[in-house]
Structures are given as structure tokens and as C-alpha cells.
Write a structure and sequence with these properties.
The chain is an alpha/beta fold. It has a single domain, classed as Alpha-Beta Barrel (TIM Barrel). The protein is about 30% helix and about 20% strand. The two termini are about 25 Å apart. The C terminus is likely disordered.
Length: about 325
């Protein structure tokens, strides 16, 4: 079992000194992956339901600090050499796929092949509307966009004639260090999301799932993989990401679970022997305390007066307990 950290670029972790401390310390204590999420714009009120909370309410306000994940991860890449860097997730249908292919290739080149593209299709109709991008058919766009990017990451020039995009002999250089094998890891727990993994993904992670729920989803995924002539061996790993400190957006622990480790979450507590302290919490959640205390730097979060929810994340980062 590998332990990852979902924290970079959000709230109190949207500052250079904090990102440096998180990245360097995570690599030193053996964290496997740093994850950075994406939203371009946020709102205080939504008609769209956030799928990962029982109430459907998104836990952050419109004034929450949220860095571009590719910028944040490039910064992290510059101060590390081994830890994997991943979007968790990138909202692919909000992007032009040619520009996104260039961005991914550039980051993977600078990170020397350590990048993984976590992909989501989005839940916020408000965000799509603000960007002037149709919310409808975003799953179809995602599929074609991933196909286009893999072509552009392959050797030589690329051509594509699809429903949404057409071009001939386009050169997109440099190529990623991993070439067209940049891992594409899909988030989501719906059957449609699991089918995306089985049909054209390299991995899957769930969000806010306890071990029993994750196991049930994995069984469905195995069935869909078999329907597509694939096996679990072809899916890089399964992610189980759980909220820290109950429902607060203070930070998340990300369990990178190999195929043969599914369900053995108890062993993750042993990460304490590698410089982290983990304790089980009620309802099967994990609380990570002082996970980056060694080498932590205090950081002045400035004079701005954020919302109460944003203050929670920044206060936790500032006092050294946890970065979110």
C-alpha cells in the first residue's frame, strides 16, 4: 500500500513556501503521490449538487484560494525528484485538448516522467456556464479529448478526424517523457465513470469511500474490465481518498492501493514508522495529524479576510497541524 497526499495548491497550501515544505517533506518521508485538484471558478451558491457530500453542498466558498494544478505541480516538481505528481482531478472537458496536451507534456518533461493525469468530467454546471462551455455531452468530449492527447503525445506528428476536432499533421513537441503512456486515471463512482476506466482508462480512484464501499465499486469495475477484454493488472492502482477531520476541507489522505492490497487499509497506520502519524477515526475515516510537521515552515497567510470555511484551512496550515 502506498500513501499519497491530496493537498497541493488549495487553501493554506496555495503559497510557495507551503508547497515547498509539503513537497520536500512528503518525498522525504516516503509519500508516493502529491495530488492537486482543479476548479477555475467557485460560487457561494450552486444549483448543481456536489456529489461527494450527503447534503450536496460544496464545502468551499467563492473566495477560497485554488491554484491552477499544473502550475502548482510544476512548482512541486522543481523541488523534488522522486514523488509522483498527479491532478486529482483535471476537468478535461473544460479545456482545449491541444493546449492541455502541451501542458501535460511540458509538466511531464520537467518532472522527468513523474506525472499522472487524473481526469474528471465535472459536476458544476455553473462553472461550465461561466466558461462558456456546454455542460451537456461533457463525457463524450472527454473521450475524444483523451484520444486526441494520446495521439499528440505519440512519436511524430498527429492527425485526427473526429466528431469534435479535425486536424492533419500537427506537431506537438516536446513529447512527455512517458510518451503516450502518461497514465490517465479517472475519478467517479457512478457506473458510467467505472465504464470509462474499463474502456479507455489506466486507473481509477474513488472519493469519500469507506473500504466496504470501495470494495463494492472495485467488483463492478472488474466486471466492466472483463467485458472489455481487460483485467485488473491493466489498471495501475485503485485510489481511496478519504476526508480528514470529518467533513472539513482541511486536507485529504489518499490511499494508493495496489490490486493485491485491496481492503488491507489497516496497514496504512504503519506509515507512522516512516515519519507520519495516522490514527483511525470514527466512521472509518482517517485523521492525519502532524503529517508534515518535520521541516514545516510557518507562513504568513496575509491580511486578507477570507470566509470562515477558508479560514479553517488556512489556520490549520499556519499552526503546523495540517495543510489543506
Amino acid at each position: 500500500m502506498r500513501i499519497g497526499l491530496f493537498t497541493v495548491g488549495l487553501g493554506g497550501a496555495a503559497y510557495p513556501d507551503v508547497i515547498r515544505a509539503v513537497a520536500e517533506t512528503s518525498e522525504r518521508v516516503g509519500v508516493a503521490t502529491l495530488w492537486a485538484a482543479e476548479h477555475v471558478v467557485l460560487f457561494d451558491r450552486y444549483d448543481s449538487a456536489y456529489p461527494y457530500s450527503p447534503s450536496g453542498a460544496f464545502p468551499l466558498g467563492a473566495d477560497a484560494d485554488w491554484l491552477d494544478p499544473f502550475v502548482a505541480l510544476t512548482f512541486a516538481a522543481a523541488v523534488t525528484s522522486r514523488i509522483r505528481l498527479a491532478t486529482g482531478i483535471c476537468l478535461v472537458p473544460e479545456h482545449n485538448p491541444l493546449i492541455l496536451a502541451k501542458t501535460v507534456a511540458s509538466l511531464d518533461r520537467l518532472a522527468k516522467g513523474r506525472f499522472a493525469l487524473g481526469v474528471g468530467i465535472g459536476w458544476s454546471a455553473e462553472e461550465f456556464r461561466a466558461l462558456g462551455i456546454p455542460f451537456e455531452r461533457r463525457a463524450r468530449r472527454t473521450r475524444e479529448y483523451v484520444e486526441v492527447m494520446r495521439k499528440l503525445w505519440s512519436p511524430g506528428v498527429a492527425s485526427h478526424k473526429g466528431e469534435l476536432l479535425r486536424f492533419d499533421d500537427a506537431g506537438c513537441f516536446p513529447k512527455p517523457d512517458q510518451g503516450a503512456r502518461v497514465p490517465v486515471i479517472f475519478g467517479g463512482e457512478s457506473e458510467a465513470a467505472l465504464r470509462r476506466v474499463a474502456e479507455y482508462g489506466d486507473g481509477w480512484y474513488g472519493f469519500n469511500l469507506d473500504p466496504e464501499s470501495a470494495g463494492a465499486k472495485i467488483k463492478i469495475l472488474e466486471r466492466f474490465l472483463a467485458d472489455n477484454g481487460r483485467s485488473r493488472d491493466e489498471v495501475l492502482s485503485t485510489r481511496l481518498r478519504m476526508p480528514v477531520l470529518d467533513e472539513r476541507p482541511a486536507g485529504l489522505v489518499d490511499f494508493d492501493v495496489d490490486a493485491d492490497e485491496t481492503g488491507r487499509f489497516e496497514s496504512s497506520a504503519k506509515v507512522a514508522n516512516r515519519g507520519c502519524t495516522c490514527n483511525t477515526a470514527r466512521q472509518g475515516r482517517w485523521i492525519v495529524g502532524d503529517v508534515l510537521r518535520k521541516g514545516r515552515r510557518r507562513h504568513d497567510v496575509g491580511d486578507r479576510q477570507p470566509s470562515a470555511r477558508t479560514q479553517d484551512t488556512k489556520r490549520l496550515a499556519k499552526d503546523g497541524r495540517l495543510v489543506g
